[in-house]
UniProtKB/TrEMBL annotation:
Pfam families found in the cross-reference section: MMPL
Regions crossing the membrane: 188-207, 214-231, 243-265, 292-311, 317-344, 380-402, 544-562, 574-592, 612-635, 656-675, 681-704
Positions of region (Disordered): 730-753
Entry protein name: MMPL family transporter
Domain SSD as annotated: residue spans: 212-342
Location relative to the cell: Cell membrane
Family assignment from sequence similarity: Belongs to the resistance-nodulation-cell division (RND) (TC 2.A.6) family. MmpL subfamily.
PANTHER family for the chain: MEMBRANE PROTEIN MJ1562-RELATED, MEMBRANE PROTEIN SCO6666-RELATED
Membrane topology: Multi-pass membrane protein
Keyword entries, A-Z: Cell membrane, Membrane, Transmembrane, Transmembrane helix
Amino acid sequence: MPASLPRPSPPLARLGRFTARHRWAVIAAGLVALIAAAVVGAPVIGQLSLNRYSAPGSESDRVAVALDRTFGTGSPDLALLATVEDGTVDDPAVREAGRDLHERLAAADGVADVRSYWNGDGATLRSDDGTSALLLARLPGDADHVRGDVLPRLASEFEGDGGAGITVGLGGSEELFRQVAAESSADFVRAEMIIFPVLFVLLVIVLRGLALPLVPLVLGVFTIAATLAVFRVVTLSTDLSTFALNITLVMGMALGVDYCLFVIFRFREELRAGRSTEDAVAETLRTAGRTVLFSGATVAVAFAALFALPFDFLRSFGYAGITVVLFGMVAALVLLPAVLAAFGPRAARGVFLRPGAARPAGTGFWHATAGRVMARPMRYGGAVLALLLVLAAPVLGIRFGLPDERVLPESAEARQVSERIREDFTAEEGDAVQVVTEMAPGDDRVAAYAAGLSRIDGVVHVDSAAGTFTDGARTAAPGAGTARFGAANAGTTWLSVVPSVAALESAPFALVQEVRAAPAPAPAEVGGYPAELLDYRDGVTDRLPLVVGLILGLSFVLLFLLSGGLLLPLKATVLNVLSLAVMFGVLVWGFQDGNLSGPLGFTAAGTLETNIPLLMFCIAYGLSMDYEVFMMARIKEEYDRTGDTAAAVAAGLQRSGPLISAAGAILAASFLAYATSGVVLLQMLGVGLALAILVDATLIRAVLVPAFMRVAGRANWWAPPPLRRLHARIGLSESGPPPAPADVHRAPARSAG
């Protein structure tokens, strides 16, 4: 086949002709599908939860199972903080009201293992100044049952007036996460109110009309509704995080708009080239459609890597990301072509501002920018590289830590309770480290083991079947309260290692590691909430190289199939990692170190939570590859036509630059909506991803890519003969086979345009 003729892509071309010829039937089917998806998917919003931090199969997980099955107990999930307005918790009327509060809580449905100061369960349940006391309880059941049924009922029954001048507030890990889930759901609604009008205004500016901009928005809604319908099915077999809802909203609108813009821009080009409506739709899908498929594949690969982690919380985003990408492609490649066929030539005309005529080849801002950069690649590329490295520098100080109450706004009840406990109590009874050991409760070695654990720095005391131990000495003999450490017909016991507030705040993981390293007279395993967080963090970090390797490796393969060379995928990987380094540098500077805490209204914790940065890596890398595919597809098309790298880069940037900048602005605006969130984790996600997208869509695509490709020249397209033959068979091409590599190392003439 001659090099000047386009290589056909029959399936997509046939799809384009089918949708164009049956446009009204396809549009009607799409509307029916949208309504059905909305009906099926709407109820799932109330079925999502914030998954617990647990690592299945880990040491802490085995301890939790043993405590539940053998001893019928576990870590307390709920803390009631009872505060006295006048006097102390030891006043007779207050003590009587406190005991009544204890009995009512113990009798409530869904509550087990209630412990309180007024029931004689330890002096550390009394605040240092005596004005407040704690009631701790375990809430058996899964997260959905506890947060959806039990906690709302307990809040309505116990929160507020506790009698005898007592004010009761609800806290604890389950209540904290319930309020985070509620806040993120409210953020979903708030973000909708921000995203839709902002996107419409941006689309009006980009598409220069009033009717056509509504199409990407409606198709974005279709993508979101279809994804929620899939969620309804997924929740039948696994838990999905409520944060997946937030990701679905912003990714559904952003990716849906991205893909739609790419198709619309190409459709307009084909109309301006003189094609009929049907031919323009077919050629658009033959060329831009294949690029959308490859682009979607790169984003899906990034999200699919999350399934390598055995955690429901992170897998939730894998389901969300892949499903959003799938339906975004369906919207752009099936529904949108039918709508464009219905618009016909009107889709190429601007309603106001100025007519949407195409610029002549070799003119325009983006072409001129590419010319300037490639005329002096080292100067421009070096300056931008230095700037990005400065922005990325804070990443060297990144620290990961525990999520705590500071993820919520100061007005949240659960945060206020947790802060009061942190300030007014010496010991963290609710976050005790639990040790299950193969010794009978009456074994003499239990006392020696408990005494040894109580000597660990940061441990306030150790409760056991042998009594309570502090600093190596027994401070309380076995009594009625120690019966919980034994079980009928069991040759095992467990110990409760109560840490100080200061130890959990400064070095919680080190404390768990010291307890695990302490000599034990019999096999022992360590669990409890601090250990669960440590095992969860270790589970994520242990699998992190696999996740990153999968994303980088599969993306490299996809870009090779697009470009046919080995250097371009390597370049894309390095530049994408650079944009990610800038994103994490800003996260460290703004959120970990607190420099954005004033404008955004959050409290810096001094560390970053593990999950959200990993999720942001997957999203940002996938979206960076998204733009890489858009840009490289046009450059490769021009290079296949001319064989001139410099001219191909300038022409490719002229064609793809306006699209990438417009899509980047729309995507960044979508993510920035979450800067208004009341949850710090969502603020991090919104600000960090918006910055990464803007850096990638401007400095990297407009400066570093042209500079690199100008310096590399013919080497951009190099590959060993076996790989060249492989690419010739299965690679992506929007034009004919490439000409002989008679590359010309010259920059295109500058344009004033």
